[in-house]
Every structure is written in structure tokens, then in C-alpha cells.
Write a structure and sequence with these properties.
Layout (H helix, E strand, L loop, with lengths): L7 E5 L4 E6 L10 H15 L6 E6 L10 H8 L3 H19 L4 E6 L2 E3 L1 H8 L2 E5 L3 E3 L13 H8 L1 H10 L3 E2 H7 L4 E3 L5 H13 L3 H18 L13 H16 L1 H11 L11
Parallel strand pairs: 2-3, 3-4, 4-6, 5-7, 6-9
Antiparallel strand pairs: 1-2, 7-8
Length: about 280
């Protein structure tokens, strides 16, 4: 009997091009515990891979990532607040591992990039989307908040856009994503993303890897310590305090009456109690 493929495929070419592929096409590459663990392992491996010059993140099948897996959400709804916080912290640490990689990181987006999937896009350095890609931060529809992805989304699009999209759960297209800064470049179709990967790989090979790492560190320094020296918590910087704070916040929402009702309504395919359609 053949074993099911792992939910993350990780490949590095001899020339130093790494491709991390979300490989759950039947689930639209939605996150679960195993997916988060394997992504974190891949990013941790890449952190110390001096020969790797560029890291591409993409999804197999019809979508980049539809966010949270339904079975994973169901399990979360049955867990204690403490268990939920530990689970959320794994996701927070995985996103930070991507954000902090020393190499150029590129998200190649097609189909759906929802919730945590859009969070991966925000945590990457550069993002390219097919014109028909669709984005959404739909957590409030489930009585939740996009807590663990919020540092990266706020950094990518700014507080005003993040507040509008988080609070409205408004779906938006690739052109809107580019206009607000979540995406840097749009191509006509998903098939064109392979050409983008070839072009950006070539550019990456022309850049000094140590200078790339230092350039990324320079932006973090300027953003955290010079441009905005006075900040309000919890977003002083994306450190352990922020990881724990965002994990606590989503754990509290998952354990709340609204969070439980939103999850139950979603899984039961009905309107939640707060909806006018209930």
C-alpha cells in the first residue's frame, strides 16, 4: 500500500534555488498541524543553508492555500485554551521562521490565498500573483481574529488597510492586493509563475548572499528602531513577546463563545447566531 504524500514538498537545486510547495491539493493546501510542522522544519533547514540563494513558496493544484483545514479547526474547537495557545504558537513561530530567512523569499500565488495562506504571502519578501488570485481575511466571520498572521500583514499593507480587511472580511483580488502592498507583481495566469521563478532565480544569483541578508536586517533595524522609535505594544517588534501575545489572543478567541459558535456554524454549514440570516 502506497503512503500518502507529505503535505509539504521541499526541494533545493544544485544551483541554490529552494522551492517549498504546499502539497495538499485535495484540501486546497489548507493548514493542519502536520503542514505547519513541516513548513517550520523546511524554513529552519533553509536558515542555515548558506548555498541557498532564493526560496520560492507555492501551492500544488488549484490554490496557493485556503487557510485553515476544516478537520484541524474541528480539533481546535475541542481543545482547551492552553492547548489552543500552544497550537497557535506553532503557527506563529513558523511564520516568523519564514519572515526571518536570510535569503530572498518569494511567494508565487494562484487561486485562493485565504487567512493563513495570505499570511504566508505577507511574511515573504516578494509576492507575485496570478491575475485571477483571490484573497481574504475571513476570520471574524468565524468569531476569530487573524492574530498570528497580523504582524506580517500590518507590516506589508499598513495598519489602515489591515484594519479594514480584518474587520470587514472583504474578499479582494490580485489588483487590490498589489495596490495595498500585499503583492508586488501580477502575471496573467498561474502558468506564468514558472517564468517568474526562472527570472527571479537569475536575479538572485547575481546578488551577494551576505549583502542580501544584511539588507533585510537593515530594513528590520530601520523599521523597528529608527523610523518608528516610539511604539505601542504588542507590536514593538516580531519577537517572542509578540509571538506569545498573538498566540494568546487567537487562543482566547477560539475558546470564546463566539469562536465556538462561529466554528460550529461553519462546520454545520449554517449561519452563526450573530448573522442576520440565523
Amino acid at each position: 500500500m502506497s503512503l500518502a504524500p507529505e503535505p509539504v514538498d521541499f526541494d533545493v537545486s544544485p544551483s541554490g534555488v529552494a522551492v517549498v510547495t504546499l502539497n495538499r491539493p485535495d484540501k486546497r493546501n489548507a493548514f493542519d498541524e502536520r503542514t505547519i510542522l513541516l513548513l517550520a522544519d523546511a524554513f529552519e533547514t533553509l536558515k542555515g543553508a548558506d548555498h541557498v540563494r532564493v526560496v520560492f513558496l507555492r501551492g500544488a493544484g488549484a490554490s496557493f492555500s485556503a487557510g485553515a483545514d476544516l478537520d484541524w479547526m474541528r480539533r481546535q474547537g475541542e481543545r482547551t485554551r492552553e492547548e489552543n495557545e500552544a497550537d497557535a504558537l506553532d503557527l506563529a513561530r513558523m511564520l516568523k521562521a519564514l519572515h526571518d530567512l536570510p535569503q530572498l523569499t518569494v511567494a508565487l500565488v494562484h487561486g485562493a490565498a485565504m487567512g493563513g495562506g495570505a499570511g504566508l504571502v505577507a511574511a515573504a519578501d516578494y509576492a507575485v500573483a496570478a491575475r485571477d488570485a483571490q484573497f481574504r481575511f475571513s476570520e471574524v466571520r468565524l468569531g476569530l481574529t487573524p492574530a498570528t498572521i497580523s504582524p506580517y500583514v500590518v507590516e506589508a499593507v499598513g495598519a489602515r488597510h489591515a484594519r479594514a480587511l480584518f474587520a470587514s472580511a472583504l474578499p479582494f483580488d490580485a489588483e487590490t492586493a498589489q495596490r495595498i502592498g500585499l503583492v508586488h507583481e501580477i502575471v496573467d495566469s498561474a502558468a506564468d509563475l514558472d517564468g517568474v521563478m526562472k527570472r527571479l532565480s537569475g536575479l538572485a544569483m547575481e546578488n551577494a548572499p551576505g549583502a542580501v541578508a544584511d539588507a533585510k536586517a537593515l530594513v528590520r533595524y530601520l523599521s523597528d528602531d529608527v523610523v518608528r522609535p516610539v511604539r505601542l505594544p504588542p507590536f514593538q517588534r516580531i519577537d517572542n513577546a509578540v509571538l506569545h501575545e498573538t498566540a494568546k489572543r487567537i487562543a482566547a478567541r477560539r475558546a470564546s463563545d463566539e469562536g465556538r459558535e462561529g466554528l460550529a456554524a461553519f462546520l454545520e454549514r449554517r449561519a452563526p447566531s450573530w448573522s442576520s440570516g440565523a
